[in-house]
UniProtKB/TrEMBL annotation:
It comes from Sulfurihydrogenibium azorense (strain DSM 15241 / OCM 825 / Az-Fu1). Its cofactor is pyridoxal 5'-phosphate. It catalyses: meso-2,6-diaminopimelate + H(+) = L-lysine + CO2. The active site is at C347 (proton donor). This is Diaminopimelate decarboxylase. Keywords: Amino-acid biosynthesis, Decarboxylase, Lyase, Lysine biosynthesis, Pyridoxal phosphate.
Length: 420
């Protein structure tokens, strides 16, 4: 039956495996729902990026927002990757697993004073500054701390990444970055600020990018500015082109590889002689993960069938907020098919994983695997409806490890109970 969706979740004798772990057997031991990740999938992707960029000095800063489970971060750390962070919490996690500060870059339009102080004290590689006011505040805080903060300006190149509007970040109308037309002036002010080291330039145009040609436009505009800065005597150390590479969600998707990205951007970046930073998130972790959930009930209305599962939008919110497609397969291969809405137990019509989907005919107790769920799955999970979050499992060959334990009700309500 059907081709395997990827190399890491494959059917063997009609049963779905993650690497060499039988998912059905695992579920009967640990319960559902759970996220399951293939360590090999993560390492293969790391190696693909390393190989693609090996001929040019490149620092790969993994974007923690995609998945910040500590055991997953540890894999990136062990392979020498840096971190792209967007909060004090992500800085804490990156440092917790031992990612060195001089490999950490920090973007985000709303860094608080507390977060800025923390990052300055950690001596991070660069703040990717997103407004004139932020620049002034970082300079002031650094002065108070008697330190110099490393900064890059995040420019907004006004390039359409041709992706979902909610995850397009490099268009003029979006909140991100400083307009490319104003950036030269901002740099001129930055180099005069006593407590800043101006070290780089940053740009990130969006996520789930399937057409690498959009990077060409963004990087050309960025490099053009690098040369203008040079003329003004402003010399940088690196150019950071962000993340954004797309992944396979639909079976027919053919996403670009790290090699496609490297072939597109390196010829342009090379002209500057600057070091390169890239910030992939999704493309390093998405396909490594699946969300495993159990069918609680099936329900047949006139001309409409529902499969109601024990995970919901609180575990994986992408279908609800972007109408995102995740491919869904049965953990046990089924000959007979059905068309149904796969929905969660949450009190929202938007609580679905797939609508009008053809899947194997399932019954109460059967398991489903929601694929390409390694990125922006667990990291966006919540306790909505006071639901414990899905636990997380890391598979390595025929071994598995629980890398996030199941919450119980008292854990979820602890901080409220303490003040009751
Ligand atoms: C500044 C920045 N860098 C990197 C990323 C990672 O993007 P992706 O997960 O699409 O690779 C994001 C998220 O889009 C981001 O906002
Ligand atoms: N959360 C988004 C991606 C956001 C990208 C962050 N800048 C997703 O699930 O696709």
């Amino acid at each position: 039956m059907g081709d395997n969706f990827n190399d890491y979740f494959v059917y063997k004798d009609g049963k779905l495996y993650c690497e060499d772990v039988n998912i059905q057997n695992l579920a009967s031991k640990i319960g559902t729902p759970f996220y399951i990740y293939s360590k090999k999938a993560i390492i293969d992707k790391i190696n693909e990026y390393k190989e693609a960029f090996k001929d040019y000095p490149t620092l790969i800063c993994y974007a923690l927002k995609a998945n910040s489970n500590l055991s997953i971060l540890k894999i990136f750390e062990e392979h020498g990757l840096g971190a792209d962070i967007v909060s004090g919490g992500e800085l804490y996690k990156a440092r917790k697993v031992g990612i060195p500060s001089n490999k950490i870059v920090y973007a985000g339009v709303g860094k608080t004073d507390v977060e800025i102080i923390y990052a300055i004290n950690e001596n991070i590689l660069s703040f990717n500054v997103e407004s004139q006011m932020e620049l002034e505040v970082i300079n002031e805080i650094a002065k108070r701390q008697n330190k110099k903060a490393n900064i890059s300006i995040r420019i907004n190149p006004d390039v359409d990444p041709k992706t979902h509007p909610y995850i397009s970040t490099g268009l003029k109308k979006s909140k991100f970055g400083i307009d490319i037309g104003q950036a030269l002036d901002v740099y001129k002010q930055a180099v005069k600020m006593e407590n800043l080291n101006v070290v780089g330039i940053h740009c990130h145009i969006g996520s789930q990018i399937m057409d690498v040609s959009v990077y060409k436009e963004a990087v050309e505009k960025t490099v053009d500015l690098v040369f203008k800065l040079k003329k003004e005597g402003i010399e940088l150390q690196f150019i950071d082109i962000g993340g954004g590479l797309g992944v396979k969600y639909y079976p027919e998707d053919n996403p670009p590889t790290a090699f496609d990205l490297a072939n597109t951007v390196l010829p342009i970046v090379k002209q500057t002689g600057l070091k390169l930073i890239i910030e992939p998130g999704r493309s390093l972790i998405a396909q490594a993960g699946a969300l495993i959930t159990k069918v609680i009930f099936t329900k047949d209305k006139k001309d409409k069938h529902f499969v109601i599962v024990d995970s919901g939008m609180n575990d994986l919110i992408r279908p609800s907020i972007y109408n995102a497609y995740h491919h869904i397969i049965t953990v046990e291969e089924k000959q007979e098919k059905m068309v149904a809405d796969i929905v969660g137990p949450i009190c929202e019509t938007g609580d679905f994983f797939g609508l009008d989907r053809e899947i194997g005919k399932v019954n109460r107790g059967d398991l489903l695997a929601i694929l390409t769920a390694g990125a922006y799955g667990s990291s966006m999970a919540s306790n909505y409806n006071v639901r414990p979050k899905a636990i997380e499992i890391l598979v390595d060959g025929d071994k598995f490890k629980i890398i996030k334990e199941r919450e119980d009700y008292s854990f979820i309500t602890k901080l409220e109970e303490e003040v009751l």
